[in-house]
């Protein structure tokens, strides 16, 4: 038996007046997902435990079968693990975004224009982070370049005494009320302010401006945590598995869970990612693994950026370039299989950030086709009355 989870990050949404009061899932043309939905067990699942923030870290841990309230230690340690940052048990890690802030002279008065600096390239970002590190690194504070706008700061022998805000939660808002808070937060804010001066006239940014792209005008520090230790996925579920994703966070969860992690050339995590490469990697991994977790970031990025048409399009691309080839491969393999399709959390276009609402899921079983729903949407899944109280129940049902 083969088991596959296809996760469209942030795919669920609210009815949107610009879509005729429909959701992107209701508007998207997705014949492959809907064909499976007609023969699948469907319902809603709560992926974010009460009291926890609705981040992709918490939600994906949950869907992958790990209870966040037991294993979650922060977002950045998972991303640090993905890019090979060496961590001691006493280290504190932070996620560092390269962001575009407004040009207000006083930092506290600036507005979060773009949490990703126009999805800055990894090549450009690496130059910027390395130059920031030359100026800002100390014996206890060290920057590490990651991918695109996503990077890591390590505080040796630090303490978890902070209240930090994800930059994608404050798009188009003044940063005034969202600056670092808590003991020693002045250190982090000091780094953010210093980064503005270092980045202001950097050649990489001047070149981006010439090309009509937003410059990276500041570091934004958030996502604090300490070293994550997860039991191996195979030891919990007795299944050998693998992960396909463009995102450090998901790669970090996969690596920490001792799952095989694919490296796909041209995988960016946005709507221009190498979908064909992800599909091909998925098929290759299924040859030697019985469980596969395929993570697609594009719907979430479109949600954060308020890109209505692109969010609908991203779902359609996932349907055509990911769901279809994986289903066709499994069907033609002659082996029994199950496929689960769901988001980790909603990322509503109207608010451009995550919410903790339950999300719609379908689970298709090639050995037990059932009367499912006509179309995979939030409303149809909710109307089934089927409700899972924990995200890990998706894996439980998959392996049942």
Keywords:
Alkaline Phosphatase, subunit A; 5-stranded antiparallel β-sheet; alpha/beta; 400 residues; 2 domains
Share of helix, binned: 25-40%
Which H/E pattern describes the elements? Answer: EHHEHHHEEHEEEEHHEHEHEHEHHEEHEH
- Please tell me the overall pLDDT: 96
Q: What count of domains describes the coordinates? A: 2
What is the CATH homologous superfamily assignment of the largest domain?
A: Alkaline Phosphatase, subunit A
Note the overall shape: globular
Strand order of the largest sheet: 11-10-12-1-13-14-2-15
Unreliable segments of 5+ consecutive residues = none
Q: Which sheet architecture does the biggest sheet show?
A: 8 strands, mixed
CATH topology of the largest domain: Alkaline Phosphatase, subunit A
CATH architecture of the largest domain: 3-Layer(aba) Sandwich
CATH class membership of the largest domain: Alpha Beta
Structural class: alpha/beta
